[in-house]
Amino acid sequence: MSTIVIASWAEISLLAVASFSALLVLLHFLKPELDPSWRMISEYEIGRHGWMMRLAFLCWSASFFALTAALFRKASTAAEVLLAIVGVGALIAALFAPDPITTPRASLSRASRLHSIGGMLVIPVLPLAAAAVGWSISGNPLVASIQHYLLWISFLPWFGLAVQAIPVFRFGSTRLEPGPNMHIGWPNRFMVFTYVAWLMIIGCALFVSASA
Asked: DSSP H helical segments within the chain, as ranges?
């Protein structure tokens, strides 16, 4: 694949993830009734301005697919497949809106259950994809600018996942009903931040190197 093509796909990935980030930040101001301390970002898909969160997830999905294309035959097959799976997960999350977090499990709609499947293809799979990408492109001139930090960069999504998982497991063990006392909203946003940061760092490295 020519460096021009790699740079183009990397640029698309960066623009898409930047759009996702901008829409998500904007929704925090447009829907202040959703307390970010315990509400999940997926809940922005519900009701007023829900289309914006759907669009955000579509942009996120496009970013993963574009990065997969930029890394085609540069990363391992496992890395490419894992990234594509994450892209599919974000797409499913865009197509099917969840129910409010306070909805009893037995009352969840089919769309909400499908949304959860999409989430499971993103949340635990991206750290695996990041590790596979980092391992397979280590030593590649395309990421020479971040070579010394590649291990730490690959660890970013794992750190985000751990921050999200700890309160989820803690509140799950106490059997608390989802509500204002269940502070999982900010950890959820921090996890997303680390996932976005990883995408942007890898995308920037590929774009700068391939454009030089």
From this structure: 3-30, 50-70, 77-95, 110-122, 125-137, 150-174, 185-211
Q: What is the per-residue pLDDT across 150-187, written as a single tens digit (0 to 9) for each?
A: 989 999 999 999 999 988 777 665 566 677 778 899 99
Residue 132: what are its φ and ψ, rounded to 5°? Answer: -65, -40
Give me 196's structure tokens: 């976005």
CA 112 to chain centre: 18
Tell me how far apart the alpha carbons of residues 105 and 99 are, in angstroms, rounded to a whole number: 10
Q: For residue 45, which of 114, 110, 115, 113 has the smallest C-alpha distance?
A: 115
Whole-angstrom Cα distance, residue 157 to residue 67? 16
Residue written as token pair 């994450």: 86
